[in-house]
Specification:
The protein is of the alpha+beta class and 276 residues long. It has two domains: 20-92; 95-274, tt1808, chain A (Alpha-Beta Complex), CATH 3.90.1570. Helices cover 28% and strands 27% of the residues. It has six helices and 15 strands. The chain has helices spanning 27-43, 59-66, 95-113, 169-182, 241-245, 260-274; strands at residues 20-23, 51-55, 76-82, 87-92, 122-124, 130-131, 136-137, 141-145, 159-165, 189-195, 201-209, 215-223, 231-233, 237-239, 256-258. Strands 5-8-9-10-11-12-13 form a seven-stranded mixed β-sheet, with helices on both faces. A four-stranded mixed β-sheet has the order 1-2-4-3. α3 (95-113) runs antiparallel to α6 (260-274).
């Protein structure tokens, strides 16, 4: 059966071994650590985790200072904050992921624009923070319909995407399942984008619950082996229209299909920032 309440593994499960943990002391200390760690990640992404853990973060500090940090603090994505044990996990930004995010938006909006401008019926929520029963969280990319069915909350996106490096693949999958369960089914599609650190390879997955309540996963991989052509495995990747918009398609509207060229475009955007 489809989950109807938030539950699942600890936010500390599936963290890459190289993830550093700090005891939170102040906003200034947090900003200093984040700045230094972001610079180290940029210089040595192969051996460093994109995630940072801060322990003993008071709820008031999260609400007042960290949920919407000052502009002089390096940008990050909120992977999780759990008020019951005062744990904060942040994901540092990276060039490859930011480039891939923009490419994903371009592909999705481009597909919808050919369906009588269906993209105008969709809002991008970006990294809006949502709060489940046990944790607060942000996606890297999220969307919600402009018009919602009566009684449907506007807190949760219908589609949420999170990205990371290959060493955090287990956590990405756990996060995708969290979106589907913690939202009580309001988030219909949870996607992950996994970038390999050491080779030209990305994997994009889409998770959703079927009408019978079973968890369904689609996966595509784009890779370019050394001295070889780009290979796309598993395409196309399908995004169900009715789950994204919470209504049936009409006219020329249909499920969104990411074909080989769309997926190659996303992969090449990420690779352009990896500088192999």
């Amino acid at each position: 059966m489809q989950p109807t309440a938030e539950r699942g593994p600890s936010v500390l499960d599936h963290l890459p071994p190289s993830t550093n943990t700090y005891v939170y002391e102040s906003l200034d200390q947090f900003a200093s650590i984040l700045s230094a760690e972001t610079e180290r990640l940029q210089q040595d992404r192969d051996n460093r985790s994109q995630l940072l853990v801060f322990a003993h973060v008071p709820n008031y500090a999260f609400e007042q200072d960290l949920q919407e940090p000052a502009s002089d603090i390096p940008r990050y994505t909120l992977d999780a904050y759990t008020a019951h044990d005062n744990l904060l996990i942040v994901k540092m930004r990276s060039g490859p992921h930011e480039a891939a995010h923009e490419a994903v938006r371009t592909v999705l909006i481009g597909k919808l624009s050919h369906m009588s401008h269906a993209e105008r019926g969709l809002y991008g929520l970006g990294q809006t923070t949502v709060k489940g029963n046990q944790r607060a969280k942000e996606a890297d990319i999220s969307y919600i319909p402009v018009r919602l069915p009566r009684g449907r909350s506007d807190e949760w996106p219908t589609l949420a995407l999170e990205s990371g490096y290959t060493d955090s693949q287990g956590k990405l999958t756990a996060n995708a399942e969290w979106w589907l369960s913690a939202s009580n089914g309001d988030t219909k599609i949870a996607m992950t984008l996994d970038i390999d650190k050491k080779s030209r390879k990305i994997t994009i997955k889409a998770f959703e619950y079927s009408d019978t309540g079973n968890l369904h996963e689609e996966s595509v991989t784009v890779q370019k082996p050394y001295n070889s052509d780009i290979q796309v495995l598993g395409a196309p990747l399908r995004i169900p229209f009715r789950k994204l918009f919470l209504r049936e398609p009409v006219g020329n509207e249909e499920d969104i299909m990411w074909e080989d060229d769309d997926l190659t475009y996303i992969a090449e955007a990420a690779w352009s920032r990896q500088k192999f």
